[in-house]
Amino acid sequence: MVALFSALDRKLLRDLWRLRGQGLAVGIIIACGVGIMIMALGSLASLKESRSTYYDRYRFAEVFADVKRAPDRMLADLREIPGVKSAETRITRIVTLDIENLREPANAQLVSLPDEGRPRLNDLIIYEGRWPNPSRSEEAIISRAFAEAHDYHPGDIVRAVLNGRARDIEIVGIGDSPEYVWTLGIGSLLPDDKRFGVFWMRRQALERAFDLDGAFNNVTVSLLPDAIEQDVIDEMDRLLAPYGAIGAYGRDTQFSNAFVESEMGQLVAMAQIIPPVFLIVSAFLIHAILSRLIAVERQQIGLLKAFGFTNTEVASHYIKMAIVLSLFGVIGGLLIGRQLARLTTHIYSDTMRFPEIVQVIDSTAYASGTSAAIFAAVLGAMSAALKAARLKPAEAMNPAPPTVYKRGGLLPAWLLDRLDEPTRMILRHITRWPARALMTVFGVAAAMSLLVGTLFAFDSTDEMIDTIYYRTDVFDAAVTFAEVKGYDAVTELERLPGVLDIEANRGVYVRFRNGVRTERGSITAIPSDSNAKRLLDHDGQVLGVAEAGLTLSSQLAEMLAVDIGDELIVDVLEGNRPTLEVFVTALTDEYIGYSAYMDLDTLGRLLGETRVFSGAYLVLDPDRAEAFSDAVLKRPQVASVALRSAVIDTFNETLEDTITIMMTIYSLIGGAIAAGVVYNAARISLTERGRELASLRVLGFTRGEAAYILLGEQALLVLLAIPIGAVLGAGFAHLIVLGMSTDLYRVPYALSPATRGFSALVVLLASIGAAGLVAQRIRNLDLIEVLKTRE
Amino acid sequence: MSDAQALLRANDADANTLLSVRGLTKVYQTGAVKVHALRGIDLTVKRGELIVMLGASGSGKSTLLNIIGGLDTPTTGTVTFMGEDITDLRPSGLTQFRRAHVGFIFQFYNLVPSLTARENVALVTEISQNPIAPEEALRMVGLGERIHHFPAQLSGGEQQRVAVARAIAKRPNLLLCDEPTGALDSRTGVQVLEALKTVNEELGATTLIITHNVGIAEMSDRVIRLSDGMISEEQAMHRRRNPSELSW
């Protein structure tokens, strides 16, 4: 039985102290792995807790439905639906805002509050100010992010255009609701707090503004614990169908919640993909360190066994060493991870508007991080420890037989003959221990692949922006009408200052059906030869909308399990609500949402409409964009305006904010792996070849020449690892693209030479730095000792 | 300047002098204890001379060899090699000195295990100005047949002869041998000494052998005995004997 601090344990601690440089390298790699795991799982737990606290306390609804106009009396029927716990009707509308100092128009989502008291569902947290006075129609509570972006406070006035009339709205409070944890700017892929806000106003005020007295256009419900969501949705659809319902939906497709959910999914993916790479590399390093240690301590092991230590005791001594080594990394990882988790949660709280971030100490995350790291360490130590256990005492007490090299082997003679001796030494050393060389290559390749597999996200974003805003949506502004309009509304827009070209469109809410599969969605009708909106095929070629049939996004086609030539049933959810049978004639590749397109005239014919439009794409004179913005706001029919330039600007700003910090973090992480691997390999090589190198120094080799022999091997392996890592990284990127794709959006795979180059540079610099540390030690080689001692 | 010193300087200037050591001391500080390894050595070595340096462990012979070979620096005193004071050289200068002028032979051969016999020699010839071809150097030590063997495939004596070939292939002015037969039995030891004698005679390399093996002394021109960090006895040999005639 070994006591807590036996002599063997003291040896263990001293050995670790002696190996502290290598131990530190392994420790850092383990700390990174555990740290990232804790960060991802920890911030996930905090976000989940923050979300559920918010949802529960402020009664976030579970089913949502929009209608054109339904009478208030329907509320009683809705409340009677089996499974419904509570229901509330509202008026919601998107309007434009006219904000001084803002070049482009901004939009607001108006949401009604009950005239008395607080909402039953989707209640508000008020940060500042008070609730609007029901008797005063022009008071609003505005969302906090929007208020912060403009430094608005209670008492300030915002001008909004409601149903064509400019109205000065007084801000009386700043608040938020669980319905808008995540908001996106109109026409944008990112939150745009400057140009998009939520305004909560009393019901009466909105009823009057939008001529909806005694009616509602939105309903939300909460469910009883045993309710079946789909049954409630079906029943709501049935009840609301006569009133222009476009289909009820659950939290899973509620915009804000779906985005929060997908961000959380990314954290899960991060915890599953990145830490294992670190832990595998750490297992390899521990294997290499212990194998070498056991070779050095061979005679000591023989001695211990001669004294009567059992094989198990000897093996567990080395396994214990690996565990102690990993524990330092684990402790570092737990500390780093905790800080990172807080930091990440706070970064998330900038885009996800939770009233408070509940910091959760996720003991499961800590336990899994710790046990994964220890498991990896034990795995790494296992084969070396078994080798120590198998050594026979008598044999072990003799020095190890000299290493036998062979001519030829893996390397062709013609190559060897052309090399100088130091290079030949490097190559023979690599081919003599190919498994070890492979581990170094793997380790460095892992670093490279991690860099490529994370930094590709910037290329991917570039590709996305390029495709969407420069190749697909090539208009300067998209205007949507509050409701469908005749062609005169389009002509009116055309006459606005700065408009060079205009192309009207028509969007219609529908339900697609193919057998048992149904999807809520919409059809966007554009001219078949549209210049403003260009649909692209899988190869990025402009497709155009077929004059007959439907062009579906590949995503929607997949969701409905249809292909070109298949027939689809389309329930139109507007007007006379006809049911159409339409053929799928083409597929288009899109990154965001799941859309369907049709020729404008064809849709009109199918719906029995003539020249009715719901919006328009505009080409603007860049010099007169401001005049256009001012003018478009005053048009009564305009519900929202999205300017492409503003959207792109927001994108670039957000990217600039994150790109430096993300590149720094990933470079540190990738660099740590590369440096750790190279440092360890070089240190092990130095202990093995120290005598050889000292001999060469005595013979007149300079420090540089000795360093070449020692580090040339690592350099060669690093150079070999970089292209391998680049290929692995591309594979990684493909996996991540697959993992991150949801029904809502798909991430394109794109990898630029610049990203590969940057990653390679980080790996090279980290390797050079680590090699430099080891090269320092060549200075300290004992040239005198080498004359006297036998290895 | 005393007469004695003036005489020594005159000797140093002698074109026949390869190396002269003057007033050499070396003090090692180990903890609180000062160890005087060398306590004032004066020595002049002529070109082509073969000197055997004898002494017990701790007598200072290895320290002297290390300083002469440019591996260590003295506490006081000078080492003048071909007219140049090497004690002033910086580490890189000492490296160049060893590279250009000194051949080393170690007790435990110190061959590179991943290179064949020929390649071990080529390792040094590649960084030398006017080397002997590796094959030729190996032939001189009687190893013409086994040039493509790795160290692990050679006997101790053969390995040490490869080491001799490696040391002499660059035509060093000074060949320093630290217990060259220490790890060998007498029969193979003799083969190594034969090789040393051959290169001393054929290449004219000044050879300094340190050993505690008295028997080797008889193959030298001069025997120097060290004890307690000083030269205790110096004896010129009238007739150099062949290694094959030696016994120990």
Number of helices of chain B: 7
Report the C-alpha radius of gyration of chain B, rounded. 18 Å
Question: What oligomeric arrangement do these chains adopt?
Answer: heterodimer
Radius of gyration of chain A: 33 Å
* Total of domains of chain A: 3
The CATH C-level class name of chain B = Alpha Beta
The fraction of residues assigned to DSSP E strands of chain B is 25-35%
Q: How is the main sheet of chain A built?
A: 6 strands, mixed, barrel
* Percent of residues in helices of chain B: 25-40%
Helix content of chain A: 40-55%
* Nearest-integer average pLDDT of chain B: 88
Helix and strand content put the structural class of chain A at alpha+beta
Cα distance, first to last residue of chain B? 45 Å
Major β-sheet profile of chain B? 6 strands, mixed
Description:
The complex is a heterodimer of chains A (791) and B (248). Chain A has 791 residues and is α+β, with helices and mostly antiparallel strands. Chain A has three domains: 1-62 and 262-401, no CATH class; 63-258, no CATH class; 474-650, no CATH class. Chain A is 53% helix and 19% strand. Chain A has 22 helices and 20 strands. In chain A, a hairpin with a 7-residue loop joins strand 3 (92-98) and strand 4 (106-113). In chain A, helix 13 crosses helix 20. Chain A is elongated and about 100 Å long. Chain B has 248 residues and is α/β, with parallel strands linked by helices. In chain B, strands 6-7-8-3-9-10 form a six-stranded mixed beta sheet, with helices on both faces. In chain B, strands 2-1-4-5 form a four-stranded antiparallel beta sheet, sandwiched between helices. In chain B, helix 4 crosses helix 5 (134-140), helix 4 (117-125) packs parallel to helix 6 and helix 5 (134-140) crosses helix 6. The mean pLDDT of chain B is 88. Classes of the chains: A alpha+beta (791), B alpha/beta (248). Chains A and B meet through helix 13, helix 19 and helix 22 of A and helix 3 and helix 4 of B.
